[in-house]
Model the fold of this input.
Amino acid sequence: MANRNQHDTKTESFLSNLMKFFFIFFVLLIIILSIHYMGFLDDIETTPTDPSTQTSTVPTKTETTERHTTTSDTVSVEITTQETTTEIVTYPPATVPTNRPKPPETMTTPPIVNRYDISDEAMKELIEVRYLTIHPNSRSGKKLTELKNIVVHYTGNPRSTADQNWRNFENNKPNTSAHFIIGLEGEIIQCMPLDEVAWAVGTDGNYTSISIECCHPDETGKFTDETYESLVKLVSWLCNKFGLGRDAVIRHYDYPRYTSSGYEWHKQCPLYYANEKDPASHRRWEEFKDDLIIND
Ligand SMILES: [Zn+2]
Done:
């Protein structure tokens, strides 16, 4: 029994040492193979030093091989799939030093372009000059003493055109007139030179102002968009031409009138912007002045 046990112990010791040897051998073998096949060291050597280069690995081809093994009674097929990869290294474009100044990093704001062209050339195109015949009751032929104001009116005659109002001044001599008439389509007729007196405001203001009559389609006195646009252009152009500020632009309404008994009243002209029954009309007038393109 003792010998038997001794023999068994030696055998077990031998087997144990053999297993340890193989274990260590296999561990070493696995480490060596891993270093070789994983390319660990190769990667370190070929990693691009330039950080701007980019490396990408693209699978390009997949190879599938089939190995058929035939034995006497079985047929086995062993399929091996191997993927080969191609490494693509992308380098940044070469930079060429240049003395050219760099563009500014922030965009400059483009200059604001006026909504309307109010150059002399554009206004000459827009305005039809058709002077009235000189007559005491329309185009007086008198000269302004100075120019203080540009005055806006409405005709008070719904749907009438600029041409009809001009003919009324010319033919009926109604003891009223204006320097300009703006029609429903935005057309402008100039009735007299700008240094002459028109009978428009019913006060001495006639001698210090240029008056503009505006046509309107209905009783509210509201101007069409076309009339409004031409009015903005014309008033802006006149103010810039004669060095007048926004405050010089007034309504017929703004000239106080007095009855024989001394009672002050204001003509509600132009009605849509000077209607005493419509508080919004005064706000509209302020908005109109805001729309003007005046360098003041
Ligand atoms: Zn008026």
Notes: The chain has six helices and twelve strands. The domain at 120-291 is CATH 3.40.80.10 (Lysozyme-like).
